[in-house]
């Protein structure tokens, strides 16, 4: 067992050194392969701070579907999070073939949108049959990153977007290593069984004009957590839709032009640092609070 752990660490470091690359000046990552089963691996994208770090980093395991690992706005989001002294690994827990995933410039229209819609239908059909394959992806990512020497295994959080938001609740109930959950605009029909009283602190983000998953699901989750006396923060943004804390138009915008995105990001960082008891030694900025 110890030998296997050493091998995994060495492979991780090798993969990181050879696959470190950039598709945009502000987003850097290493593409790695996460062992899931004996003969199966899952692609993952690791983001680390772009400044010198002399201590172990808390870990955020993040998941989103529709081939989201190729979407630059997600990469930008996680690099900015990593720069706040976190190690981040980003996965598509459905393990949809990357070759069929839409690219960063066409995922929301035309052929890219068609591919994404097909992905959703395909994954939905698989989830209707069984959900363990989806949940296992998160557990595998936690196991994999826990072997990295730079990761603080006592400070692990999960972040799920859309379809994946429902899975992180289930994983967090099962895995005591998870100390915090970020739940981003999830909902029916992909809600997976979970026990609210077993959950660590949860931060909820939702736009009240979300046309994919109705905001009522965020309110229902908050009520369940309140009823079970679990710590949570509910952030509902007026006038915002699906992916509001990630999305901006690459052709005409950047993240600094989206007040709701910036506010949600700062709230998330504050929640993670508070919940995981992390000192923010490299950043002195403060976010502004949006109306809720």
Notes on the structure:
- There is one protein chain.
- With 292 residues, the chain is an alpha/beta fold.
- The chain has a single domain (2-275), classed as Alpha/Beta hydrolase fold, catalytic domain (Rossmann fold), CATH 3.40.50.1820.
- Helices cover 36% and strands 23% of the residues.
- The chain contains seven helices and nine strands.
- The chain has helices spanning 2-19, 72-82, 110-129, 132-146, 163-174, 216-227, 259-275, and strands at 20-24, 27-37, 40-47, 57-63, 87-91, 151-161, 178-184, 202-207, 232-237.
- A nine-stranded mixed sheet has the order 1-2-3-5-4-6-7-8-9, with helices on both faces.
- The radius of gyration is 18 Å and the shape is globular.
- The protein starts with a helix and ends in a 17-residue tail after the last helix.
- Residues 9-25 and 282-292 have low confidence and may be disordered.
User: Which bin fits the share of residues in helices?
Assistant: 25-40%
* Low-confidence region ranges: 9-25, 282-292
Shape, per Cα inertia axes: globular
CATH topology heading: Rossmann fold
- Overall domain count: 1
Q: What is the topology, as strand order, of the major beta sheet?
A: 1-2-3-5-4-6-7-8-9
Order of helices and strands: HEEEEHEHHEHEEHEH
Secondary structural class: alpha/beta
Count of β-strands: 9
Q: State mean pLDDT (0 to 100 scale).
A: 85
Radius of gyration: 18 Å
| N-to-C CA distance | 49 Å
How would a textbook summarize the main sheet?
A: 9 strands, mixed
Beta content: 15-25%
């Amino acid at each position: 067992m110890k030998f296997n752990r050493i091998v995994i660490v060495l492979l991780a470091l090798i993969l990181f050194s050879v696959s470190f690359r950039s598709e945009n000046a502000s987003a850097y990552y290493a593409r790695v392969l996460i062992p899931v089963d004996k003969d199966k691996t899952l692609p993952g994208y690791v983001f680390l701070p772009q400044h010198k770090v002399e201590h172990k980093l808390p870990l955020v395991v993040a998941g989103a579907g529709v081939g989201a690992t190729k979407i630059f706005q997600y990469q930008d989001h996680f690099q900015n999070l990593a720069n706040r002294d976190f190690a981040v690994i980003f996965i598509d827990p459905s393990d949809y073939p990357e070759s069929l995933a839409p690219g960063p410039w066409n995922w929301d229209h035309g052929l890219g949108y068609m591919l994404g819609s097909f992905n959703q239908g395909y994954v939905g059909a698989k989830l209707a049959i069984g959900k363990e394959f989806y949940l296992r992806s998160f557990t595998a990512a936690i196991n994999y990153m826990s072997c990295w020497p730079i990761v603080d295994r006592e400070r692990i959080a999960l972040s799920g977007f859309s379809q994946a938001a429902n899975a992180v609740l289930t994983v967090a109930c099962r895995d005591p290593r998870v100390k915090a959950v970020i739940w981003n605009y999830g909902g029916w029909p992909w809600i997976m069984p979970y026990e609210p009283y077993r959950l660590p602190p949860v931060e909820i983000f939702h736009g009240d004009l979300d046309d994919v998953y109705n905001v009522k699901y965020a309110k229902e989750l908050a009520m369940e957590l309140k009823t079970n006396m679990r710590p949570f923060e509910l952030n509902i943004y007026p006038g915002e839709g699906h992916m509001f804390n990630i999305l901006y138009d690459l052709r005409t915008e950047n993240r600094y032009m989206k007040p709701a995105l910036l506010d949600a990001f700062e709230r998330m960082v504050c929640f993670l640092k508070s919940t995981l008891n992390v000192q923010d030694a490299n950043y002195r900025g403060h976010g502004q609070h949006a109306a809720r």
